[in-house]
Amino acid sequence: MSHFTKQGLSPFKTKRGFLNLHYRFSFPCIFSPSKRGIDTHASHHLDRKPLISDAELRFEFAHHDPAVARVNNGSFGSCPASIIAAQQRWQLQVLRQPDDFYLNRLRPGILHTRTVIKGLINAGDVDEISIVDNATAAAAIVLQQAGWAFAEGRFNQGDAAVMLCHAYGAVKKSVEAYFSRAGGRVIEVQYPFPVSSKYEIISEFQKVLEKVRSDGHKVRLALIDHITSMPRVVIPIKELVEICRNEDVDQIFVDAAHAMGCTKVDMQEIGADYYTSNLHKCFFCPPSVSFLYCRKSETLPDLHHPMVSHGYGNGLPIESSWIGTRDYSAQLVVPEVVEFVSRFEGGIEGIRKRNHEKVVEMGQMLVKAWGTNLGSPPEMCSSMAMVGLPACLGISSDWDGLKLRTHLRECFGIEVHIYYREPEDGEVNPVTGYARISHQVYNTIDDYCKLRDAVNKLVNDGFTCALLSI
């Protein structure tokens, strides 16, 4: 393949044969750090490479299990072979000369990554960008300082945090651990699912903030998902941030675990105080790497990494760049991921657009085949969609959803997330189960046909979740 040259290292075996992961791009490897550090401006000198071919694309994801239809990219993401190879080169540099790496190369490498991310998200300053392991770690950093605010008397007992009812479970646990335990009130904004319009969410959010204010309480923190995990819905964050500003909410934290590579991310447009997104979900990085954006403001408190190390007191970006001896390679390949996505027509914006169009098309195909509905309008789907499953499958609990997910994996070779929706009173023959489907560049229509046909077979065979004992 024209844009790769072999490095002469041992191959990695897959079910499709031998795949040599140890490749480098044919342009000079400017992202490999020199002993003087990394040239953060070198990306301007890259030769433009041709658009990725179908054969090259298949190669990049040839390590995927060919027996499995992966329509669940949203859970754990996907990393192409060339990026795996880049990560391995970083790991080998550490093992070859760890003292030189940790003392001379790591910090410039992290700074390069932060600089690249600053440009990707239209942040105002590189010092607003910190690199962390994942969005859950970012939430802990933000919520930890809220807990300190109670202890230091800046927040009063009964001050509130507002969050969406479908916020990610781990973030809800962080709110419980840091905010509730310190004496804060937590108020969840309820909204319907399926959702028919963004205004259903906007209206409920506005009502909650107005009620808290009328009751004489202070909202110290609003936690807003950019894209909820389960059920999957794109949230109108710009409108919700504006409501928060009008209602004098102290701090606004956007949990955007899925957003990077999935929807537009622009810090100047969004206007939140804190924003985090994973880069290993929809942006092709290896696990795990995320960024936490903290808007520069004299009114916002200093944040600190929960793992205190030698950088403590020098600002969160420095604290986060060194938390002890560990594998930092996933954080260092971000510039090469940017080069990877640039090989697709339209870059990451083109990938997002095509993934969105395809997931809506596949979702509508499944809806037609199963006689159900989408969980949200197409404009609220991004590159993932909630597709109603036939009611006759008898999904009556979260446990049923997990059993069905396992059954589809083990018996049909399909990986898809299943969501249980509790029916409303009086609903007749309700759709209680939804498949959360993703689309990524490696997916083909056969993946979704495989899911369609498997569910149709279960229906035709009279299958119900009650029959599963796992």
Automatic annotation (TrEMBL):
InterPro entries (UniProt xref): Aminotrans_V_dom (IPR000192), PyrdxlP-dep_Trfase (IPR015424), PyrdxlP-dep_Trfase_major (IPR015421)
Pfam families referenced in this protein's UniProt entry, alphabetically: Aminotran_5
Source taxon at top rank: Eukaryota
Coiled-coil regions listed in the entry: none
Keyword Cytoplasm: no
Keywords on record: Pyridoxal phosphate
Domain Aminotransferase class V, residue spans: 112-298
PANTHER family: HERCYNYLCYSTEINE SULFOXIDE LYASE (PTHR43092:SF2), L-CYSTEINE DESULFHYDRASE (PTHR43092)
Protein name: L-cysteine desulfhydrase
